[in-house]
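A sample follows:
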Amino acid sequence: MALEMRIPAIGESITEVTIAQWMKADGEYVEQDEIIVELETDKATQEFPAEASGKLSIKVEEGDTVEIGALIAVIDTDAAGNGQSAAPAAEAAPAAAPAASSEPKATGEVKDMVVPQVGESITEVTVSNWLKQDGDFVELDEEICELESDKATFEFPAEARGILRIVAEEGDTIEIGATLAKIEVMEGGAPAAAASAPAAEASAAPAASGEQTYATGHMAPAAAKILAEKGIDPSTVKGTGVDGRITKEDAMNAQKPAPKQESLTKVEEAAAPKGNRHQDRKKMTALRRTIARRLVSVKNETAMLTTFNEVDMKPVMDLRKKYKEMFKDKNEVNLGFMSFFTKACAIALQEWPAVNAFIDGNEMVYNDYCDISIAVSAPKGLVVPVIRNAEEMNFAQIEKEVVRLAKRARDGKLGMDEMQGGTFTITNGGIFGSMLSTPIINAPQSAILGMHNIVERPVAINGQVEIRPIMYLALSYDHRIIDGRESVSFLKRVKELLEDPSRMLLEI
């Protein structure tokens, strides 16, 4: 019987793949689940196994780009084995025998470790760091790696005890449900390092031999085609793949080196740059790629406008100066500016509900609660944890929640539930010295308030010129759902509450 091998669906946004390398030759006998080809997409390279044992007939050449569902090979399942695949199995048997007789004993079960569902909107994660090595013995629930999504970094525990076999390398981006690693389940005590080493070497040898031949001095056919079109010598390109392999992404980013000049005139020598000049190219993290994609999407898909106002911060600063020590003694947290702005925004949002709403298809969704997102600059990028039901919280509760969320953000420990579902965002560029900016909306929200630095400026007070601490405020909003009257009135209301903080206590 002839079994057709077709390209499977490997991701919602992926419509085609490139045949990177055939691991088996045309007419060769293959075993079921044996890797026969490497497929390369615009996101990753993955191996494709044979779906049955038999004689392989290749229909698509290396370097060809084919669509999902296309026929790439046929396996004749009636063909007898030619003995080529029997040798490795025979050689593997003696190697496995000592392991079976040693303690602990292998159960024969292999546990697939797949990427779990970590959020409704998350479809892929990046392997940021392996905490264990390939071939290590791991215990049940022991942390084995760190996974990075576009919103958070989290640790992944082992789901069984045994020998770890890593499938996805550090830096790989894989989809939810994809196999991350395998665990050869063991029973009994943990093995000595010396006992597990031969098994690790035996399992790694076949893979290494196949990968090394392909990686060293050889690149993906798609990469070779791109470099040829650009007229770039592959020897001048630094590969980021396994063992320095030049990937399709490397080829796309490669630039043709400037031609060498045999000699320079005195004028050219004088104009030539002096000193060391170096460029450092780093791959964008999943978080940074997602931030970039979402920001561009918001600019393209919303009718975004920004309105401005200024706030005299003297009343707030006087109030803080008068009560900050008593506030800290009672609540064990500092009285900062963020509680004033959060409380003022929560009150204004209830008065102008369109600023607290969002568009869903052809509908406008209004919220009767204020979940205010606070933009925090974390080591891996900008994150926006959410203060839930801010309208029901007092100043102390808001300050404690801000401190808690900011600390978890900087430690990289924010959970998915702490960053989803905000209805409005506050961002404070003033801590970095920003005088004025136009913040970009945090989709799917419809508005964001930008705070800036406080600068002493001359202002007219009751007909007299006085020096006051002034802050510029910026409200960026989606004009599709928020009209000019609502945006300006909202920002004016925030200004009134900040310039007379007692209004917030009396709710007037």
The CA atoms of residues 38 and 47 lie 5 Å apart. The radius of gyration is 30 Å. The chain has four domains: 2-76, 86-215, 221-253, 286-506.
